[in-house]
Amino acid sequence: MGEMSGVNKTMYIPLCGKAMVSKKGIILKDPMAEMIWDKEGFCLKGKAKSKWLAYYMSMRAAVYDAWTKTQLEAHPDAVVLHLGCGMDSRCLRAGKNAKLWYDVDFPEVIKERMKYYPKSERYQMIGADVCEKEWIDNVPRAAEAIVIMEGISMYLPMRGLIELLGALRIHFGEMHLLMDAYTEFAVKASKVKNPIKEVGAVAITGIDYPEYIAEQSGLTYVREHSMTPVKLIKELPKSEQKIFKTLYGGRMARKLYRMYEYVWK
């Protein structure tokens, strides 16, 4: 495995988690994560390899998957953009019916990704810094787009995030977006203790007011989603459910981390 920046190394945290729960047969079935992790697992330390974090990130992924499938059912002709895709296999888990799917991440990430995900007429990968918006010109203009931003907004400067969303809005006739984000409190807390620090990354942006992002980018804020639905928590062993709720399902978790849906029509 080649050298990667701290931000790129964070892609191994959710990959590890998805492989772990998939092997347990709970939350998320992800044979690709299992295969990639077994072959090229990055050495994670401390809380980055916690089973509780694995449960949490896998639940987050499952929520994104369900939302993506729902959006594709409602907008079957939409172009799908998964920004900050890492090594994630959402294109396989939730995108089988997509007519055109683009996975986007840094060039060095896409180089690794290409070892496992072959391009096709309906599946493409773009290696680029998402804030350098020229990459959008490689995506055909379309009447509808579904945009997935999982685990990426916190690494983008606020102005860069807003400009990116505005550029995407202009590129498509209609856009549906799901994005998770740190709060301002989480950004401050991450300076002290955060799993991403253990792989060398530092949070940049926190969002307390999703309406602000909407106002600045031209999108419309729809609603907040839960990243720990009760039905997924119930898939955990009973002995672990209460502990997980305390760690990731309560008020403190929401004080740190949110998931927002936006639309442009």
Structure description:
The protein is of the alpha/beta class and 265 residues long. The protein has a single domain, classed as Rossmann fold, CATH 3.40.50. The chain is built from 12 helices and 7 strands. Strands 3-2-1-4-5-7-6 form a 7-stranded mixed β-sheet. Strand 4, helix 7 and strand 5 (172-182) form a beta-alpha-beta unit. Helix 2 crosses helix 3 (31-40) and helix 2 crosses helix 4. The longest helix is centred in the N-terminal third of the chain and has 24 residues, at 51-74. The N and C termini lie far apart (42 Å).
Biggest sheet strand order reads 3-2-1-4-5-7-6
CATH fold-type name: Rossmann fold
- Figure out the total of helices: 12
**Domain module count:** 1
Average predicted local confidence, pLDDT: 89
Total strands: the figure is 7
Question: What is the H level of CATH, i.e. the homologous superfamily?
Answer: Vaccinia Virus protein VP39
Fraction of residues in helices?
Answer: 40-55%
Major sheet characteristics: 7 strands, mixed
Radius of gyration: 17 Å
CATH architecture: 3-Layer(aba) Sandwich
